[in-house]
Specification:
Length: about 190
């Protein structure tokens, strides 16, 4: 059985991305080109364009197409910028197709990317998995004017957040509601309650 992934890609952009107020043509165009199925195990390729999160490795999930598009639109990636994609293989491919220089961080200590040897500081940092709290090091690798897009989730509630670095500080702004699964290693710490 073969799938026509190119027509599924076009349908995904028209029915999940554009209708969700993703108006950035560069993101739409890149999503029409990037083969989402290429970052999934072959047994899950049929789910590439479904309106769902898809586990591509143990404890690692691709965001829904709508959510990754809205997250990217929130961080406003521009050709020529430097980006760090943390457990974000699809977002990395989309940003590369948009002309960004992308570094991927998929293994090791994900909470502590460093500037040494990583190519940072970065104009854009994106994570496709949900976390309970953003590790401080993710903001530390942002260049002045840099933007971090990530989903923070507490219980059943999740919200995509935009962190912005100024010359002196980092601010945060809510983008939209979503609730993808938490990434492995970013679960809440166990606590005792009565």
């Amino acid at each position: 059985m073969s799938s026509d992934f190119s027509s599924q890609r076009a349908t995904m952009v028209e029915s999940q991305v554009r209708v969700s107020d993703v108006t950035d043509y560069a993101i739409q165009d890149a999503m029409r080109l990037v083969a989402r199925e290429a970052v999934l195990p072959p047994a899950k390729a049929y789910l590439a364009y479904a309106d769902t999160e898809v586990e591509y490795a143990p404890g690692r999930w691709l965001l829904k197409p709508r959510d990754v598009a809205k997250l990217l639109q929130g961080v406003r990636p521009k050709a020529g910028e430097r980006a760090l994609a943390i457990c974000a293989p699809y977002a990395a491919a989309v940003m590369a197709a948009m002309g960004l220089e992308v570094t991927r961080l998929d293994e090791g200590d994900l909470t502590a990317p460093s500037l040494v040897g990583s190519g940072g500081p970065y104009d854009v940092v994106v994570c496709e998995g949900a976390v309970t709290a953003v590790p401080p090091a993710w903001c530390d690798v942002l260049a002045p004017g840099g933007r971090l897009g990530v989903v923070e989730r507490h219980g059943q509630v999740g919200r995509a957040e935009l962190y912005l670095r100024s010359e002196r500080d980092v601010g945060r702004r809510d983008l939209f509601d979503c609730a993808p699964p938490l990434m492995a290693g970013f679960e809440p710490a166990a606590a005792f309650t009565f």
